[in-house]
Amino acid sequence: MKILVINAGSTSLKYQLIDSDTEAVLAKGLCERIGAGGHLKYDSSKTGEKKEKDIDMPDHGVALKAVIDVLISPEDGAVASLDEIDAVGHRVVHGGEYFDKTVLVTDEVIAKIEEISDLAPLHNPANLLGIRACQKLMPNTPQCVTFDTAFHQTMPEKAFLYGIPYSYYENYKIRRYGFHGTSHSYVSKKALTHLDKPVEDTKVIVCHLGGGASITAVKGGKSVDTSMGLTPLEGLVMGTRSGSIDPAVVQFIADKENLSVDEVLTILNKKSGLLGLSGKSSDCRDIDAGRDAGDKRCEIAFQAFVYSAVKLIGAYAAAMNGVDLIAFTAGIGENDSKIRESILDYFDYLGVKYDKALNDSTHGDEVEIQTADSKVKVVIIPTNEELTIARETLDIVK
């Protein structure tokens, strides 16, 4: 089967066409600046050549039409017609407590996604635009949705409840939901293939380290705790996000700077983290370069990022009463050997030992980097969220 995976943002739409039999990517691309011009980048399925062009995209429907035109293009297309696409899998950020797995799109599902949009006001409405655009252009093709929060719905109450009046959970469902669930699910399942023990006895910590970053404790193959919360702002110091802070900081900054709560949250989401601490960049590659050049604030940003990860890994090892494997994934986790090294050096007490030369030479490959006498396995596992969505869509459609 050929499955089209759609990831719609407020002004963007990423896509991949995947052959479920071979799991090969037949086509991929990105629509940008939807509603403000429009630009399409894609790889030609015929030649592999990277192409891009400006296309007026006033809305997601027009953007999806541009994608379909490329997919069926005689010059660059992967299919002769839309009839060759058997299903569409959509990424939706927030599923609330309603969705713990991939589901077929129905009117009831759409209504629930709309109902919980206040939990992800920047993401869920945009995801719905992608779903509706596909329904209009491909009315006879089954559509499925995979939720970023679904994998974490196995967390117990002690992990997902906040220490606030219980009525806020009852009335508004304020709790920790966690995100990057599609990535954590894929990587944790890959991690289990590196362990020679029954799944129910395994203890894995997945470090999804990218511009957005989160860490998850996976016990017996299920998420039992994760660092992001009601929103993706909680947890680690990230590229532009502050991570966990004293909630009173919001009021303090608002009073000092004469700002609204929304304006302070914009600062915490978009002007903080590595960018805010370094004053230079949200990109770890720039932070690493700054450190090499002796920039003190880049050094501070680097150490703050590492330390926030170390504390969470230690906490999750304690919560699970041990750890069998630590996995690194996403842009930073897969490619930044300095970050991995600085994190792992904290865990002598857990018996973690790793091959420094192997760590330094590994970028984006799946590989174990622990030494033979390490008590904990350390594995770099490239994530593949699109493939996970395609697999789960295939299961539903079958």
Question: Could you explain how this protein is built, in words?
Answer:
- With 398 residues, the chain is an alpha/beta fold.
- Helix content is 38%, strand content 19%.
- It has helices at 60-71, 107-115, 124-137, 157-160, 166-172, 181-192, 248-257, 261-270, 273-278, 284-292, 296-319, 330-335, 337-344, 356-361, 385-397; strands spanning 2-8, 13-19, 24-32, 39-43, 50-54, 87-92, 103-104, 143-147, 203-209, 213-219, 222-226, 325-329, 367-368, 377-380.
- The strands form 2 sheets. The protein has an 8-stranded mixed β-sheet, sandwiched between helices. Strands 11-10-9-12-14-13 form a 6-stranded mixed β-sheet, sandwiched between helices.
- Helix 7 (248-257) packs across helix 8 (261-270).
- It is globular and about 60 Å long.
- The chain starts with a strand and ends with a helix.
- The model has no long low-confidence stretch (mean pLDDT 93).
Q: What is the count of β-strands?
A: 14
How much of the sequence is in beta strands?
Answer: 15-25%
Q: What sequence of helices (H) and strands (E) makes up the elements?
A: EEEEEHEEHHEHHHEEEHHHHHEHHHEEH
Structural Rg:
21 Å
Helix/strand-derived class? alpha/beta
- Ranges where pLDDT stays below 50 over 5 or more residues in a row are none
Summed over residues and divided by their number, the pLDDT gives a mean of 93
Separation of the first and last Cα atoms:
10 Å
Largest sheet: 8 strands, mixed
Query: What is the strand arrangement across the widest sheet?
Result: 5-4-3-2-1-6-8-7
Q: Which outline best applies?
A: globular
Count of individual helical segments: 15
Helix content: 25-40%
